[in-house]
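QA checklist item 7 of 12: single-chain prediction sanity check.
[x] sequence parsed
[x] length recorded as 143
[x] structure emitted
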Amino acid sequence: MLTGIVFSFLRTRNPAFGGPMSEGARSFLQDIGLSLFVAVLAATVGPKILASFQGIVVIKIAALGLTAALVPPLLAWIYGLYFRKMNPAILAGACAGGRNSTPAMKGAQDACQSDMPAVGYPVPYALTSMIVLVLGYLTMVLY
């Protein structure tokens, strides 16, 4: 992840860095990288999660997951739209980045028929990725 951030930074400073790359090739590399990450994570963690689902625990996990999935983006949207007066297209990209959801960002681009949501996407994506990695590692080490 850090390597991707460094190379992205270098390419923004020098567009010739890395040579020309078509949008299709860039999109393919982005999608295949995300898919491989999810596949490796699912293969290593999936069996442990399935073994822990027993009885009422499943309902509690579902309720907690639903709350964790819906409340933060809703609060971010309300804060950005009403308190920060952000452009809704950029805000949609920022909310998608905060959830690390490239498909949501592409959906926002399709909905507004513009690439504007991509402006708000990278910073929240990078911040939440780093926070999840650090806190996940600390949780693993401490427990």
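[x] summary fact logged: The first helix runs from residue 2 to 13.
[ ] second reviewer sign-off
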